[in-house]
Amino acid sequence: MSSSVPVFEARGVSKLFGPVTALSDVSVTLNRGEIHSIIGENGAGKSTLMNIICGRLAPTTGTLLVDGNETHFRVPKDAQAQGIAIAPQEINLVPDLTVAENIMLGRQLGGAARIDWKATRANATRHLHQVDHTIDPSAKVSALSKAQQQLVQIARAAATEARIIIFDEPTATLTYREEEALLSYIENLAREGRSAFYISHRLEEVRRLSHRITVLRDGRHVGELTPEEATRERMVTLMAGRPPKTGAQPRREIATTETVLEVQGLSRAHEFRDLSFALRKGEILGVSGLIGSGRTEMAKCIFGATRADAGQVRLNGQPVRFDSPLQAIQAGVIYLPEERKQEGIFPLLSIAENTALPTLDRFTGLLHLRNREMLAEVERLAIQMKAKFNSLKDPIVSLSGGNQQKFIIARWLMRDAKVLIMDEPTRGIDVNAKFEIQSVLRRLTEERGLSIIVISSEMEELLDVADRILVMHEGAIKGIVNRSDATQEGLLRLAMS
Ligand SMILES: Nc1ncnc2c1ncn2[C@@H]1O[C@H](COP(=O)(O)OP(=O)(O)OP(=O)(O)O)[C@@H](O)[C@H]1O
Ligand SMILES: [Mg+2]
Question: Locate the ABC transporter domain: which residues (predicted)?
Answer without folding.
Answer: 8-243, 255-497
